[in-house]
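Q: Is it fine to ask for two folds in a single conversation?
A: Yes, each is treated on its own. Send the first.
Q: Here.
A: Result:
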Amino acid sequence: MSAVDVAYTRCEEITRREAKNFAYGIRLLPPDKRRAMSAVYALARRIDDIGDGDAPADVKRAELERVRGQVDEIRRARGGLTAAVAGADPVYVALADAAARFAIPLDAFDDLVDGCALDASGATYETYEQLVAYCRKVAGSVGRLSLGVFGLGAGFDGAEAVALADDLGVALQLTNILRDVVEDRGMGRVYLPAEDLARFGCAPDVSGPRDAVARLVRFEAGRARGWFDRGLQLLPMLDRRSRACVGAMAGIYRRLLARIEAEPAGVLDRRMSLPTWEKALVAARSLAGARP
């Protein structure tokens, strides 16, 4: 295999191992888009891992800036691999090739880096609007990157599609935040807005009476549902296989959100998830054209 083929293979391995939910959708894409999405995911995963790592904040920020610099190199090389990019690690080689083949908005990686820098610095959010802005950075950015791989059907408005992809990313990230309330608290992180914590009688670290936390989680889940309703308006704008991919990923998270909404106190006891068979069922239904 060529160096580029080897690089894609490595990215696909990362995706299968790390993308517990996204992989069900990505595997529904045709080979060229599947490879490109695996490259996008592999770098997004790397950036996220830096933000979540154990290194001191200044070391994390330096590592994030190095990633930003490498993406800048790929941006400059768009349309052909420079020696600098070709000599980089497999994730960058695959992304450089994907960026030459698809209209991937590489600037969105800058937003992702900025969002993970907020994680590295232990940022908290006073208002819901601030939280949504963070979600757009760390997840809306991935929606926009993915849309660059999927492309749009003829006659659809590109700006509208970008906004919807961004909204869908917000929905997924809000679901993640609700699922990981206790895990994040153990890392000293709080994402839910301080104004909402106070409103529902919860402590600043999302502790407090169990029923108060449950009411807060159910309230935030209802908000997340609204983001799904908006973001899923993207589906008719995509071709069949891309629509199946997005439908599978969004459908898995939407079912997870419904489970959280039905049992909001459950997030205090365990990391809520869907069984493998249910994820596979959602993917199969998406490929068959069922609404997620």
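Q: Second one now.
A: Result:
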Amino acid sequence: MRVALNAWSLNSPHTGIASYTRNLAMALRDLGGVELMLFYGFSWSPALREAPVPGMGAMKALVKRLLPDPYGLTRAIQQVRFTQGVGDFKPELYHEPSFLPFRFAGPMVVTVHDLSPIRYPDTHPGARVQELKKRLPAAIASASAVIVDSDFVRREVIGHFGVDPDRVTAIHLGVSGAFRPRSASDIAPILQKHGLRHRGYVLAVGTLEPRKNLMQAINAHAELPERIRRSTHLVIAGMKGWLARELEARIRVAEERGEVRWLGYVPPSDLPLLYAGAQLFVYPSLYEGFGLPVLEAMASGVPVITSNQASLPEVAGEAAIMVDPRNRNALREAMLRLIEDKAEVRRRSELGLAQAAKFTWRACAENTLAVYRKALQATGQK
């Protein structure tokens, strides 16, 4: 089966969509029976890129400053290159892993990770919200099949767009084997690189943007007893996002007190080791279509505190402590519990490892391949 996969997200520092694209591509190739050709925005290649393109972030920022409609122009050029590549490769099916597909004459599968721009438009840039509102209904209508990350998002997509339920398939993401429990000696070099102490920090992972609700994590941590704030810092790993000025100012104040560390973007090679060295992981997001960091933390043997909303209970099961993400007191008390109660830490860690074992990229790829076959059968190609 010849499949075209849009891998544009792999050009930039890796986010959740990039992780999904990369891991799905690797798992599909491991399964066999699929010939993948990856589209990198302006070029095609069968090779899976191992690292972001140097300077891509600066290049995007420059284009945004210089052009009146940077997204529209970039998209138009990419559509030309996409169509040229399709003519050469002649894929039987096209999979768009990030919401908005290019024009394609054959069977097309689209992955919709969440509806946060629609449900929580105030947590996204206005241009992004308008683009998705304008183009996502047509993308879903034109797709042969729609993949979503969770049963929660499946219900949202069906309810909001009125899609035939048979066209929408929930396929859980997996967790890489890089995320696993590790000894203190194994991770010592990385912790030293970042100036951290084994089990000496609470870890939060996420882009600095409103939906991730990191301000709540900072404020809850600030209300812990002083001895704990000093001995167990809050460490935030994530690049600067949208509407982050107030959050950055709050981080600077906490950093000056020696209680919070913002590491910025952390390379994928370092991130599993940061997880494994944490005392606990906190993820109070307001809305997630899946919540991959929760799964990664559990697979690392680290107890988790997360939100009780959207898809997160579906991913965390009974393993995590779940709180109302707007309840700072509940978040603070959960942090205190997992810092002081060693028995509870062990129990949550064991539950987390068992929960994470239920999610694999191989299963994700197998279920995705089944959707491909169904889409091809519907058009009489297979």
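Q: Anything structural to flag on that second result?
A: Two points. The mean pLDDT is 93. The first helix runs from residue 16 to 31.
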